[in-house]
Amino acid sequence: MTELAKLTIADARDKLRAKEITATELTQSCLDAVNAADALNAYSAKTPEIASAQAAAADVRIAAGDAPDMCGIPLGIKDLFCTKGVASQAASNILNGFKPEYESTITTKLWDSGAVMLGKLNMDEFAMGSSNETSAYGPVVNPWRREGSDAKLTPGGSSGGSAAAVAADLCLAATGTDTGGSIRQPAAFVGITGVKPTYGRCSRWGVVAFASSLDQAGPMTKTVRDSAIMLGAMAGYDVKDSTSANLAVPDFEAALTGDIKGKKIGIPKEYRLDGMPAEIEKLWANGADMLRDAGATIVDVSLPHTKYALPAYYVLAPAEASSNLARYDGVRYGQRAKLQSGEGIHEMYARTRAEGFGPEVKRRIMIGAYVLSAGFYDAYYRRAQRVRTLIKKDFEDVYASGVDAILTPATPSAAFGLGEMANEDPIKMYLNDVFTVTVNLAGLPGVAIPTGTDAQGLPLGLQLIGRPWEEADMLNIAYSLETAAGFVSKPAKWW
After folding, report:
1. Centroid of chain to Cα 425
2. Does position 1 have pLDDT exceeding 70, yes or no?
3. Please, which of 118, 146, 189, 460 could form a disulfide with 415 given CB 3.0 to 4.6 Å?
4. Is this structure's pTM higher than 0.70?
């Protein structure tokens, strides 16, 4: 029965409309797959009753001919999205037991379109991490393994549960959020497609904030076409989000013609890092060749301030996080520490935050508080904002020269083992975002597409960076690259 869970959104949509399958059957297939995959630790909360009720309602809509594209499609929802009456902890102990009385705008849009919620997906705590090892629920395990090895690998982060669930066919697609690469890096690590839309394309209302000027929700799916379908249901203006853009949502799927003749694709020289693995370099070159063969023109471009992106990001993101996470104090919701005799409210604040936050979140709060402090605000935070402006201008200059999209690697390596970096210098972990953070700093759309495997059989991905608000064109170029690469590998089932 779990065979139906292997369908793509596009195939499932067509079968549902043709009455070949029902949403109830499709949902049950996914629920069976979820229940058989506890070893992956991808789901933090399962919602079979909600899923069954939503699937039954979807079947009624389909029978009546009132079926949007996402109607009857079973999804996993990253634990960062607030879902009414369902545990929404952001994978943190400080929100233990929190069940919102409201629904995020994006999940509301998905349920209104007839989609089905299978449950909440594991993630790094408050989306802070690149390996899903900071989660209060424990790490997610990548469904892929190195050839000849049983070592457990990371699915990437922070959307590690979303990535693993889609790759292992535990849902047809999932929501993710991307602050510095948290959709694209895990997508590359597990061999799926992950889209980070232009900042403001998708509402942030009801999504637990990490860094408000960088966070953006997006789809994580099995194919580019599926991402186009799901993004169409997620995107749109929201009066409740002041950063939401009041722009029409194009038909992203209709844009997938595969015709990229005359498109100009930039290759930024600054992304050729010292010590880059030869297989990443080869993957990148092969991707450029595929786009050239499809009719695109490949040109070298320069993004001169790229080398400052990672340090600027790790000043700005913690600064915003320290401000956003100040609200978790044990007073209004979530966990509250027990006080000892004679202790007052200040001790309660301190003890609650000390007990509730994990080490990585504490580290980033302290960094953020430091760079925002009176003596260091100009030296760090203000300077990082200036660097951000220069990085954004680099992209504007490249696009003004006629470039339609930029091709880069998605990650500096394939998935690494759980525990391999966790106890080392945290900066080594932060380097996983080296190819992705610029996109968030500049507010641009980006997509990771699986295009090959490494010597140990693990998936590798490439990234396309599009012009602002031109996700449709970016996805069409990604569709052409996906078609040329022909990546169809799936992890061998061991769980």
Report:
1. 24
2. no
3. 189
4. yes
